[in-house]
Design brief:
Length: 366
C-alpha cells in the first residue's frame, strides 16, 4: 500500500478588512493570516477506486465526494499535471479532523492544501511551492495560505499571499461555539449592516441584533479574510478600500503580545455577532478574564483570545470553559507551519523520509 499523510493548520485572521462587494459579489480583502497549531491530517492512498472517509471533530457535516475541498484540490492537481500523474485508477482520501467545521478557521481549505502536498508527494509530481500555490488559488481563497502557513498578508480574495515578518510565538485560546456560521451569510450580514449604517437619520442606526459587542473595533472598511462572497450580487457597499494595518505589522515584528492584542481587528465581527448574538458573551468573558485581545475568527463563530504566555493561556482556557460561554475551548500556539508531509510510503526512498510531527517538512521548493 502506498500512502502519504500531510498535516495542515487552522488559521485565525489577525486583521480582516473587507472592502465593498464587487460586481461579482466578492469583496476585496486585506487580511493578516496566522496559522495555529490545531491540525487536520489528510492521508491519500493509491487505490483501485476513489473513496473518502472523514473522522473526528464535526465529521458528520463534512461533504463526502466531489464537493469536499480535498477532493476538489485533487481534481485541480490532476487537471494541472495531467491524468497520467495518477499511479492507480483511484485514490482513497482519509481526513482526520480536529479543526471544527464552518467555524471561521478555514478547515476545509486546510484539507485542500493537505491533499495537494500529499498527492504531490504520493505521485512524485514534483510541483514547486509556487506551482502548488497556483493550483491552490483555483480551489479556494484560503488554500494558498494553508500551503504557506506562518503569518502572512492576504490580498484580493485572500488568495494573493505573501509571508509577513513576525517574531516570537503567541499563545491563543480558541472558544468553539455551539453552532456554525456560513461564510456567505456573514458577508451578506456585513453588507446589510453597512448599508443600514450609511442611511441618514434614525433609520441609519443598526438594529439591536446587529450591534457589535461592546469593545469591538468598528469596521474600518479597511480591515478583514477568506474570499468573501455575500451573494449580494454587487450591491453597493459603504466601505472604503481596505488597507493593511501598519501598527499591527509593527506589533508582529516586535513579538510582544501586549502590543498585538489591542490591534486585532475583524470587519466581519459585528455581522457574526448579529447572526449569533451569544458571541457577545463569549467576547466579554475573554476580556473579563484578562485576554490581551479577543476577536471572532474570520467569519466565525469561533472566538480567538490572545494570552500573555502559556500559563496565562491555560488559566484563560479554564476560566472560559467554566463560564459556560462556549461549547469547548482549546489552547494553541501560533504561528504554525503550513501543509507538511508527516509520513511517506515505506518504500518512499528518495521521495521522502519518515517523520513525526517535529520532523515534518513542507513539500515543494519555496
Ligand atoms: P471559510 O474558509 O469559507 O471561512 P470556514 O473556515 O468557516 O469557511 P470550513 O470548515 O472550511 O469553514 O467549512 C466550510 C464549508 O465547506 C462546510 O460547511 C462544508 O460543507 C464545506 N467543506 C468542504 N470540504 C470540507 C472539508 N474537508 N472540511 C470541512 N468542511 C468542508
Amino acid at each position: 500500500m502506498t500512502a502519504v499523510t500531510a498535516r495542515v493548520p487552522a488559521k485565525v485572521n489577525l486583521q480582516l478588512s473587507v472592502g465593498p462587494p464587487g460586481a461579482d459579489g466578492y469583496h476585496d480583502l486585506v487580511t493578516v493570516f496566522h496559522a495555529l497549531a490545531l491540525f487536520d491530517e489528510v492521508t491519500v492512498t493509491s487505490a483501485d477506486t476513489d473513496s473518502m472517509v472523514v473522522t473526528g471533530e464535526g465529521a458528520r457535516s463534512v461533504p463526502l465526494g466531489p464537493d469536499n475541498l480535498a477532493a476538489r484540490a485533487v481534481a485541480a492537481l490532476v487537471d494541472a499535471v495531467g491524468p497520467g500523474v495518477r499511479e492507480t485508477p483511484g485514490l482513497a482520501i482519509e481526513i482526520r479532523k480536529r479543526i471544527p467545521v464552518a467555524a471561521g478557521l478555514a478547515g476545509g481549505s486546510a484539507d485542500a492544501a493537505g491533499a495537494l502536498v500529499a498527492c504531490n508527494e504520493l505521485w512524485g509530481a514534483g510541483l514547486s511551492h509556487q506551482e502548488l500555490a497556483e493550483v491552490a488559488a483555483r480551489v479556494g481563497s484560503d488554500v494558498g495560505f494553508g500551503l504557506l502557513g506562518g503569518t502572512a498578508v492576504g490580498l484580493g480574495r485572500g488568495d494573493r499571499v505573501t509571508p509577513a515578518l513576525a517574531a516570537g510565538t503567541y499563545h491563543w485560546v480558541l472558544a468553539f461555539a455551539d453552532g456554525q456560521l456560513s461564510t456567505p451569510a456573514v458577508y451578506a450580514a456585513c453588507d446589510r449592516l453597512r448599508a443600514r449604517a450609511a442611511r441618514p437619520g434614525p433609520g441609519g442606526q443598526p438594529a439591536p441584533g446587529d450591534r457589535a459587542a461592546p469593545g469591538d473595533r468598528p469596521g474600518s472598511g479597511g480591515r478583514a479574510a477568506s474570499g468573501g462572497r455575500s451573494g449580494a450580487g454587487g450591491r453597493a457597499g459603504t466601505a472604503a478600500p481596505p488597507q493593511l494595518d501598519t501598527a499591527l505589522m509593527a506589533a508582529l515584528r516586535s513579538g510582544d503580545p501586549a502590543e498585538l492584542g489591542p490591534l486585532l481587528s475583524n470587519d466581519l465581527q459585528a455581522a457574526a455577532v448579529s447572526l449569533l448574538p451569544r458571541l457577545r458573551q463569549t467576547l466579554a468573558a475573554g476580556r473579563e478574564h484578562g485576554a490581551l485581545g479577543g476577536i471572532v475568527s474570520g467569519s466565525g463563530p469561533t472566538c480567538a483570545f490572545l494570552a500573555r504566555d502559556g500559563a496565562h493561556a491555560r488559566d484563560l482556557a479554564v476560566a472560559l470553559a467554566g463560564a459556560g460561554v462556549c461549547r469547548t475551548v482549546a489552547s494553541v500556539t501560533g504561528p504554525a507551519p503550513g501543509a507538511t508531509v508527516i509520513s511517506v510510503p515505506a518504500d518512499g526512498g528518495p521521495r521522502g523520509r519518515l517523520g513525526g510531527s517535529e520532523a515534518g517538512r513542507p513539500v515543494g521548493r519555496p
